[in-house]
Design a protein that fits this description.
Layout lengths: L20 E3 L2 E3 L5 E3 L3 E3 L4 H6 L3 E3 L6 E5 L8 E6 L4 E6 L4 E5 L6 E7 L2 E7 L1
Antiparallel strand pairs: 1-4, 2-3, 5-6, 6-9, 7-8, 7-10, 10-11
């Protein structure tokens, strides 16, 4: 959802934004039960900056271990994982360009991975 309106055809596990706005996520399970995430203000920074400072997380969703891959300028920085309501549930230091994050003890749901001023959505299945 963008500014409270459903985004047409945005039904995959990943979504690239094209504009600044307030984004939220609706998740529906196999039984048809739905839940809406908290809203998050996201600033669109453009393709050149995004490519230069690209962070990727895989597999996403994950049941156990996700790997976060970061650019060189984020090595040695700290990562923080938050619930969609803002509760800090996990943190650590990035010791390499590919860093494992143990999601095993997290409840299934949507989480926000924050590194410096960068944010990535992380889903625990």
């Amino acid at each position: 959802y963008l500014n409270g309106n459903e985004i047409p055809n945005a039904t995959t596990q990943t979504f690239e934004i094209a504009q600044t706005g307030n984004y939220s996520l609706m998740i529906t399970d196999a039984n048809g039960c739905s839940a809406m995430s908290d809203t998050m203000m996201v600033t669109y920074i453009g393709v050149n900056e995004k490519t230069k400072n690209s962070i990727s997380v895989y597999p996403n969703p994950s049941a156990e271990i996700s790997t976060v891959q970061v650019p060189e300028n984020l090595l040695g920085k700290y990562f923080h994982v938050y619930t969609t309501s803002g509760e800090l549930v996990l943190c650590g230091k990035l010791n390499g360009r590919s860093h494992p994050i143990n999601c095993e003890d997290l409840a299934p749901g949507v989480y926000i991975l924050r590194i410096e001023n960068e944010r990535v959505v992380l889903v625990k299945s």
